Amino acid sequence: MAFIPSSAPFSAADINALNTVVARSSPEQRAWLSGYLAGLAAASTQPQVTAPPAPRTRVPLTILYASESGNSESLALAAKKAAAKQGFEARVVDMADADIATLTKARHLLVYAATWGEGDPPQRAADFYASLMAPDAPRLDGVRFAVLALGDTAYQKFCATGRQIDERLAELGATRAADRIDLDLDFAKAADEWTAGTLASLKPEDDTTSATVVHVDFNHGIGPKEETAPSFTAEKPFEAEIVGLVNLSGTGSTRETWHVELATEAPGFTYQPGDAAGVIAENDPELVASLVDAVGAPPDNALLQHLTHAADITTLSRPLIEKYAKLTGRNDVASIVADAAAFQAFTAERQLIDLFTSYPERLDAKQLMGLLRPLPPRLYSVASSPAAHAGETHLLVGAVRWQSHGRDRKGVVSTLVADRRRAGETLKVYIRPNRHFRLPTDPQRPIIMIGAGTGIAPYRSFVAEREALGSKGPSWLIFGERNFSFDFLYQLEWQEYLKSGALSRIDVAFSRDQPEKIYVQQRLWQHRNEVRRWIADGAHLYVCGDEKGMARDVEEMLARILAEPRPGDADGGRVELKALAKAGRYQRDVY
Questions:
Q1: What's the CATH code of the domain at 315?
Q2: pTM for this structure?
Q3: Rounded to whole angstroms, how far apart are CA atoms 152 and 129?
Q4: What angle, rounded to 10 degrees, do the helices at 552-563 and 528-536 form?
Q5: What is the Cα–Cα distance from 310 to 376, expressed in whole angstroms?
Q6: 517 and 385 assigned to the same domain
Q7: Cβ neighbourhood burial of 229 (10 Å; 0-12, 13-18, 19+)
Q8: Interval 17-70: pLDDT, tens
Q9: How many domains does one find in the chain?
Q10: Pairing of strands 276-279, 426-432
Q11: What helix, strand, coil percent values describe the chain, rounded to 5?
């Protein structure tokens, strides 16, 4: 008798064998076999239970930044978020808080470094930079690193700080995980791409065997606060209506200083006193027309729009001249950049239009646009308080105008505001946070605010905020300008603040009201005993204004004032000033 049909999915030999076994089996045996086979079938449909994989150990990564305006800091914080998604345990450290000795413990190192002025490191990073460059800097064998350098091609020593850090890390034995990248003002997209690629290079091929993460404690646990991603950026600005536009300078002034009030009541548009507002630039149509005419390009609408809204048409940089020389084949243009003295002589007080008129060549629209870098926004210290001026953002804009080489020159954004905007029209803006220019967290702390010209803007924000919140901390304003009668910016407001007690004291220095010029640093020296007393009482010092002039002179004077009680200790004042900066009690917003 055949129990297994010939159609069963077995070979003929297997079918015969099965029939032989079944034929000899009892009903009990067949029932057992039936149940056993049913159990096997059910078990094969259940998910297989396997031991969970061993947890992957996150790879330690130190992200070090040197920042002046906040760009490097923003990139470092963005890199930390990107690193977390790739399995890194990242720590962000400001060079101002870093200790060179602990750098040896950083297995993987990512550096974002800005260059300030003519090749200098940002002021807050200067001590760390000096330690890194010193002959006794520690060896960094075993450290893998990569450097992103930020700079401005308008300056001769483009990205010098980042380049030197990159070279020095290699000299000390560290190994490059990725090539350095040098970025101009239009850095955002390229920085994101470089960060993503560099993180992939830094990550070990087999990170499952990485050791337990050990944090490199540069600053005793104090790190930058990671603020939420802004709703509005340079790439996605807010179009704000101008609700107030007033020239604060008197009729006889040699200045032109505009108070701008913007309606910014929008979800996500927030700022703190001390922050800056970025204004999206727009070129003067007259300059655009002159530029197109100088190169003989057909003035089609696409070209005019690009030159007006997207291209930097004023900056005369070394890379631009090099590109123009290569494009035109002109040896006389190439000779400008071949010699440093020749470059300096030609570019001094000149702009792009001068290159085209001095060495004229015909260019088409594509060639012209290919020469130019993107048009960067301009930053202005916010002059309002979110507590006192809800839904508004105020700016203080000094119109820049000058004449050189027979041409009238204009500041790009400052004359956009002064000449081509009216109340009811709009400006595209966003907020650039400035964590290192903030009011003390303790509202009772004294503050000394030192500034000249439009450097008074953040102090209006400080004092208005303190009054609106009922803060009772003493406040002292030391302000400088040219003439009392024409240039005492916000004079009536300061007088009201003195009456209300929001401002405790004000000292002014109007340089051109007497034969001998007087500046804020002279006022500081005149009242040096009070300055030292305020500092002893815990005062925070703030300096806002031009770096090459006022800010540098003020720093020298503050160091001299602090050193005076210690005769023979010429460096004591500088040491004390550095200690104040380290503690967050000496803050600068300079340009």
A1: 1.20.990.10
A2: 0.85
A3: 20
A4: 80
A5: 8
A6: no
A7: exposed
A8: 676 666 677 666 776 667 666 666 655 555 555 555 555 567 899 999 999 888
A9: 5
A10: antiparallel
A11: 40, 20, 40
